[in-house]
Structure prediction request, 408 residues.
Amino acid sequence: MNNGNLFAQVLKQENRHNPYPLYAQLRETPVSIQDDGTYVVSTYAEIRSLLFDPRVSSDEEKNLASKSGSEVSSSNEHPNQDEFRSFPVYDPPDHDRLRSIVVNQFTAERIYGLRSWVEELVKDELDKSRERDQIDIVDDFAYPLPVTVICKILGIPFEDEEFFHEKSTVIATSADPDPSGQNKRRSKEARSQLGDYLHQHIKKLRQHPGKDLLSAIMASGDLEAGRISEQELVAMSVILLIGGHETTVNLITNGMLTLLRYPEHLERLRQDPDLAPRFVQEVLRFEPPVQFRTRTTLADIEIAGTVIPKGVPLVLMLASGNRDPLHFNDPDRFDPDRQNNQHFSFGGSLHLCIGAPLARMEGELAFRALAQRLQSPRLIEDVLQYRQGASLRGPKHLLVKVDAVIDA
Prediction:
């Protein structure tokens, strides 16, 4: 297969079920130039280097600026700015300013203060399936769990779930490269609609603040002091709502699928629930919810014998790095006992996912409960239909036959 066509193959739906052989071919050339001019980096050491390189930008507007020869110095000067873009796609100093506002409120104390409630929520969601002998892990468990959690964190009424689920799906799919621009246009429209909804939600919280994250940010004085604008707060709410559940759905679903394919490890977890944190860590490496991230270069970068020019599209194949045999021993083996498991599934450097502790907690509690309460779970079919996007990868449904859902 033409090496310059491999990333295009990754994006195809027919390869979604198992992209890992394609990643192995990509790793034969650590930095490969695709036929469309995209540079794809697929090996652990090179990905790590670029994650920490200030010459690599998350801001695609800077890519537009570099092509036009103009300069972009701040978020308020971005050409063609999408008003609902948020801090993960910015570079310093805007990124640091906005991220710090979230981090100051989205604390470990706030996250782990939810643990008992999330544990009860896990129990309640599984209780709904007690009379069934077949469960869709996605629709019946992996989706409603993190959606309910992020609604509570942001103070959003769960009854509005149908609306924001539709918009979130469109936006999440737009993470894939899209030469036609069709996905980007649909995503911009969905962001605008979701942003309008959250703008109204924030107005209500101003009048009747609660114990949620958005109320805490507004109570901090950052708005009044000008450290964040209301538009930026709305954009931040959009990304927190989407990021707070889309990837966690995939984490739980990919993890359960892996445990069903490795029943000996499912039995280990059933016998010793305290192993759950190790299982979460290895699932994140082995079947990560986020497969790759797109970036752009602000200068020429020489790496692995290749010069990546300024202003070109760059893809960091995080899931490929997670299976690089030069870094991980026997990387295609699922091994919860793996030591020094430093994967890329939450990104890295300045853009390390702020929701990582919450996702780990939800995954840990979910795997513990699934292992203990599903009696003799087995896959109904092993050939699965995957969700539309290649960047955020997970099955659309995961049908499991059980003898019973036993009491907690």
Q: What stands out?
A: The CA atoms of residues 289 and 365 lie 17 Å apart. Confidence is low (pLDDT under 50) at residues 64-82. The longest helix spans residues 182-207. The radius of gyration is 21 Å.
